[in-house]
Design a protein that fits this description.
Elements lengths: L1 E6 L3 H12 L4 E7 L2 H10 L4 E4 L8 H7 L5 E6 L5 H6 L4 E4 L4 H16 L6 E6 L2 E6 L3 E7 L2 E6 L3 E5 L2 H6 L5 E5 L2 E4 L5 E2 L3 E4 L2 E4 L5 H13 L1
Parallel strand pairs: 1-2, 1-3, 3-4, 4-5
Antiparallel strand pairs: 6-7, 8-9, 8-12, 9-10, 11-12, 13-14, 14-15
């Protein structure tokens, strides 16, 4: 599921995107906003995977917002103006939808975004620096991450790596399918085997779900099982 918001100053455009989104099981539509500033505030305080973003808006344009938000948040531009296409792709937009937006074209864009955001090929790697050592780690080998004071422990298949960094920095370096579910834990959603009331299981490890993260985790799994 893609945690998605809509930012567009046209009510009719918002309503159309809401209707389209309600018919796609991959979208968890969290909120909609009539201006980019309110949308940016929401993004800064919530876990958002994808923004359906208009370009021409008062105060702050969609192009300007895309430059300000975390690069890990996917953007699909929705606009009536084709002249912004080149600039949008320079910002690594996942797609560019011209209004009026056809439903088939909308589905194509969402599928593309879903493949980029939620896929985790086993050959994808990240570089982790621990003291004087540098590790190249396969993302698929990461079971979960645990915060301990000023350190993060990457728990992998067969070993653990201790790194001095904070949760924010760690999340910035990981793909969007890694989610924080507790103040001390980050997990790749694909590794969760069982979800119970207050914890998840990854292998034999029981990992608590923080109160502020519970609704999102429940929503993800309930929606995903329906799709």
């Amino acid at each position: 599921m893609l945690n998605t918001i809509i930012i567009d100053d046209e009510p009719n455009a918002i309503n159309l995107l809401k209707d389209y989104s309600s018919n796609i099981g991959k979208i968890n539509l969290m909120a909609s906003f009539r201006n980019a500033i309110d949308g940016m505030n929401f993004i800064e305080n919530n876990v958002v995977d994808l923004v359906l973003l208009d370009i021409n808006m008062p105060k702050l344009s969609g192009i300007s917002l895309a430059k300000l938000i975390n690069t890990k948040v996917g953007v699909i531009f929705t606009t009536a103006y084709s002249e912004y296409a080149v600039e949008s792709y320079k910002l690594n937009a996942m797609d560019y939808l011209l209004k009026p937006i056809d439903f088939d074209r909308f589905i194509e864009a969402i599928n593309k975004a879903d493949n980029i955001i939620n896929s985790a090929p086993s050959n994808d790697t990240i570089i982790i620096k621990s003291g004087y050592k540098i590790f190249q780690v396969h993302l698929n080998d990461i079971l979960y991450l645990e915060k301990e004071g000023n350190y993060i422990t990457y728990h992998l298949k067969g070993k653990s790596i201790l790194v001095r960094e904070n949760v924010g920095t760690t999340l910035d370096n990981l793909p969007n399918y890694f989610k924080q579910i507790h103040k001390s834990y980050i997990v790749p959603l694909s590794k969760i085997e069982i979800i119970e009331q207050n914890h998840v299981l990854i292998g034999s490890k029981k990992i608590p779900i923080g109160r502020s993260y519970k609704n999102e985790i429940d929503r993800f799994f309930k929606s995903d099982h329906k799709s």
